[in-house]
Specification:
Helices cover 34% and strands 27% of the residues. With 379 residues, it is of the alpha/beta class. The chain folds into 2 domains: 208 residues, FAD/NAD(P)-binding domain, CATH 3.50.50; 128 residues, 2-Layer Sandwich (D-Amino Acid Oxidase, Chain A, domain 2). It has a 7-stranded mixed sheet with strand order 5-4-13-14-15-12-16, sandwiched between helices. A 6-stranded mixed sheet has the order 7-2-1-11-18-17. Strands 8-9-10 form a 3-stranded antiparallel sheet.
Length: 379
């Protein structure tokens, strides 16, 4: 039985473990954190992701939180008036609304008890000899180091992947900044002016706040803004940074409510937005998957879907070439590349929808929203 080391216990990592176990491999997952992390921020699940989750046998375990069709959504204009808007699921593909933690929980139901998971552990050296990959693993709590051998190593450890830096080189070779920041989290309670499941968006040039209403759970918040000085955004507490960035914004009472909820939030996501551009996703018997390989960004909405989809494709290609891992990895990449390239290009336009960089994109966005909202409620 071939043995695979998967680095990262996120959506892509768990999906890869399920996919490869299903074709007869023995997966081992290592995770830097001391326990499974749970993030409550909003995620869209596109048709490709639904199909991939079904193939993994996890879709029925994922809670879908798309608001009812009858729910109205709003945009706040510059005068502070609430106008009809559209929901996230009204875009092409009609993605379903869920939480990152919901998808991970669905995958976990399949992974739990059946796949070996080692916490508080990171790779510190990865070297291949013939067809064997030798990996030095370090427990970050005890500093104990041991070397294990695998037939394949999968880097599914996120945007700033340790596997990628060890095997392919430094982050700056592959990470392309979109000069934006995101802060995403789930609130403990609704906005006072909205009813259950309603959403509202506040958008101005270079900054926006999104409140995503969800079914059967509390709403989530997304702060996103543009900045050319990414490094300085991490010097001070993020709440203080947001207070400064969003000072004087129309709908400031909504902003202040969200900032008060940020203090109570569990596992908020605070990060700069980057794509990962790699000319090749594999080297020897080491392969990258998910955000580690391509990072479509939160704006694309395709991150979770692409991670599960990629894991399925990888498993399929390995099953088709069981004795030729190199061919399998090449086929995995050639099948996925067109899809990933397409959504990386779309991410720029989608970023303008989330946070327009100038008046033209702001005007274009408002016209699209107005047209879509009119069509929706006319029907």
């Amino acid at each position: 039985m071939k043995k695979v080391l998967i680095v990262g216990l996120g959506i892509a990592g768990m999906s890869a473990a399920i996919s490869l176990k299903n074709i007869g491999w023995e997966p081992v997952i290592i995770e830097r954190a001391s326990e499974r992390r749970r993030g409550g921020y909003f995620i869209g699940l596109f048709p490709e992701g639904i199909k991939a989750a079904q193939k993994l046998g996890s879709y029925e375990e994922i809670k879908i939180r798309t608001p009812d069709d009858s729910i109205e959504n709003f945009e706040m204009n510059k005068k502070g008036k609430m106008k009809r808007g559209i929901s996230f699921s009204d875009q092409p593909g009609n993605p379903q609304s869920t939480l990152r933690g919901d998808i991970e929980e669905g995958l976990w139901q399949t992974v739990d008890q059946s796949i070996k998971i080692i916490y508080s552990t990171v790779p510190i050296e990865i070297k291949q000899k013939d067809q064997v990959v030798n990996v030095k693993l370090k427990n970050i709590l005890t500093d104990v180091v041991q070397t294990e051998s695998y037939d394949l190593v999968i880097g599914a450890d996120g945007l700033r992947s340790t596997v990628r830096s060890l095997v392919f080189g430094s982050h700056d070779k592959y990470m392309k900044s979109l000069n934006t920041m995101i802060v995403a989290f789930q609130m403990k309670k609704d906005l006072p002016v909205l009813i259950n499941q309603q959403s509202i968006t506040l958008v101005e040039k270079n900054r926006s706040v999104w409140f995503f209403g969800l079914k059967d759970t509390n709403p989530t918040v997304l702060f996103t803004y543009r900045t050319k000085d990414i490094d300085s955004q991490f010097i001070y507490p993020i709440k203080d940074v947001l207070k400064d960035k969003y000072k004087g914004m129309t709908g400031e009472n909504f902003v202040n409510h969200a900032l008060s909820e940020l203090e109570k939030a569990e596992n908020p996501l605070t990060d700069s937005v980057h794509q990962v551009i790699m000319p090749k996703w594999s080297k020897g018997n080491v392969v990258m998957l998910g955000d580690s390989a391509w990072c479509l960004t939160l704006y694309s909405g395709m991150g979770a879907s692409a991670g599960m989809m990629g894991a399925n494709v990888l498993g399929e290609k390995l099953s088709q070439s069981p004795e030729d891992i190199q061919t399998a990895l090449e086929n995995y990449e050639s099948e996925l590349r067109p899809f990933i390239n397409k959504h990386q290009k779309l991410a720029f336009l989608k970023s303008q929808f989330f946070v327009p960089s100038n008046l033209f994109y702001g005007f274009l966005r408002s016209r699209i929203i107005k047209m879509k909202a009119k069509q929706k409620f006319k029907n």
